[in-house]
Specification:
The protein has about 200 residues and is mostly helical. The chain is built from 10 helices and no strands. About 55% of the residues lie in helices and about 0% in strands. It binds heme C (2 copies).
Length: about 200
Amino acid sequence: MDARIASGWIKRTSVTLAIAAFAAPPTQSQEDLPIRNCTWCHGSSAQGLDGAPRLAGQRAQYIERQLESFRDHSRDNPASKQYMWGATARLSSAMAQGFAHYFASLPAEPADDGDSSLVAAGKRMYEEGVPDANIVSCIVCHGPKGEGFEGIPRLGGLSYAYTKNRLEQWREGYHASARPMPLVARAMTAKEIAALASYLSFLK
Ligand code: HEC
Ligand code: HEC
């Protein structure tokens, strides 16, 4: 081969290789993600279905951390054990990241399924806590609209039953690694949990 042609060929080849390397994403590309493996439980638009919570609009960093906690079994409440340990057993970190960014990008709709007579009490607790009972306010971490921040999850519009279960199960000692929530939930009464979960289901 003529030296000039050969060097041209090498140049073109290395350009192609460089493009290929650039195009290969560091995370799983969204077209390849088996989204339906998740949405047949979490709902076709990921707004939540039965016991499976809404994933749409949840913080990517939080989703990734939960997937990790199912995989390492530190999120050990009964529903997680029954449904999510298996779903994450063979999930690579790249796929977990891909799912987290995909679901975070979807618009979140509120469940609106709490007890509306408890909303005012729930709002007061969310914003001010219950100083006498040693319950901190939620707003400082979860934000005025329950929108969350980085690894702190969005709570606004989560379903009543899901939020209620989460708080009850922390109080019972499950998923103890999810600091600070086990400590936050420890002092709550059933009535207070119902009020918070009701308020949050309507918040957007
Ligand atoms: C067989 C049903 C089922 C499948 C399949 C499933 N999930 Fe879940 N998922 C659940 C249930 C039920 C929960 C609630 C666990 C609990 O109550 O703590 C959950 C919880 C979660 C949570 C925690 C959300 C939060 O707000 O803390 C994430 C994240 C999640 N699933 C992501 C996924 C992803 C990603 C997939 C697909 C790879 C998937 N799930 C597949 C049923 C399922
Ligand atoms: C100091 C910050 C902080 C405060 C205060 C706080 N939270 Fe949290 N909350 C977190 C963090 C961080 C997580 C994620 C924990 C993990 O890693 O799993 C969380 C998770 C949650 C979840 C789980 C959401 C899901 O999708 O499963 C609920 C529900 C929740 N908090 C409710 C509350 C309520 C109600 C209050 C007020 C009574 C409150 N939090 C106060 C930081 C806080």
